[in-house]
Amino acid sequence: EVQLVESGGGLIQPGGSLRLSCAASGFIVSDKYMSWVRQAPGKGLEWVSIIYAGGTTYYADSVKGRFTISRDSSKNTVYLQMNSLRVEDTAVYYCARQGHQAYNFEVWGQGTTVTASS
Amino acid sequence: DIQMTQSPSSLSASVGDRVTITCRASRSISNYLNWYQQKPGKAPKLLMYDATSLQSGVPPRFSGSESGTDFTLTISSLQPEDFATYYCQQSYSPPITFGQGTRLEIK
Q1: pLDDT tens digits for B19-29?
Q2: What pLDDT does residue A100 have?
Q3: What residues of chain A lie within 8 A of the CB of B100, using their CB?
Q4: Which of A5, A43, A70, A100 is least surrounded, with the fewest CB atoms within 10 Å of its CB?
């Protein structure tokens, strides 16, 4: 069964760091385009970052220079390292796998909540 | 960046109604347009891809169309489980962008 399971969310003070994990099963993460998408409380969906099958990465302007996406093929896991967190980074963070297109999202995790607050 | 403008932002309808949601891209995205359904507390679910292709397992009462930079999602006969929030998303190029969402409520 194809599945994504996120972990690593929590309450963090502004300026702090957190690393989210997305453990995949049923497919190989390094064969697919993998993204992080977030949703602030009561708001819409915002794409955060993508890592291509070939390893290229892209980021939304709102997180560029602060967040880093990576993967560990031995663990079949994708990560999002979040540094210099801001109050406005508070959101549910979803891991998502590409579908028929490189940039759409066919498989989603259940989400992990990040709260940046003092 | 490609902006996606979705309308309406909310919509009230009854079971059995035909409903249409519209999404406009700020520039040409070919047919790289996807639709998602999201229910409260749940992850989004892919409904349509390539503007008009139905994702596997999605009921055929959902359909999509395109005309230039304008895209529509139509639900032919609303069922109780269709009341949710719907998002369009362009998959033409990064940064990947979503519409602001349409909340479909029971009248």
Answers
A1: 999 999 999 99
A2: 86
A3: 44
A4: A43
